[in-house]
Amino acid sequence: MTNVSVKRFNWLRSPSAWEQGQAWRERQRGLREEFEAANSAASTAFANASVNQVTGMTDIITNVAIARLQKEQAAKSVNTLA
Fold first, then answer.
1. Contact indicator for 15, 23 with CB cutoff of 8 Å
2. 10 Å Cβ neighbour count for 24?
């Protein structure tokens, strides 16, 4: 038996430099689009968080003011009846 040593199979052709460049640009475009989508989502989330905080604080302040006014009104009505 003879010992046959095969170093490499050339069944598949290697992509040309131009094809490699095109593939690299496609990967870069995909990565850039993913980054822009993630960046947009994060930006929207931060904006929504800010709006929600302001809305929540406004609700709290309004509820405290209403409670204070109701307390003052109750105190006035007790003083008027007495």
1. yes
2. 10
The CA distances from residue 74 to 60, 62, 67, 71, 78, in Å, are 21, 18, 10, 5, 6
Tokens 């199979």 locate to 9
Amino acid making up residue 17 = A
Which of 32-65 are b and which e, b meaning 16 or more Cβ less than 10 Å from the residue's Cβ? Answer: eeeeeeeeeeeeeeeeeeeeeeeeeeeeeeeeee
d(C-alpha 81, C-alpha 79), whole Å: 6
Q: Which amino acid is at 53?
A: Q
* Stated pTM of the model: 0.56
pLDDT digits (tens, 9 = 90+) for 44-62: 999 999 999 999 999 999 9
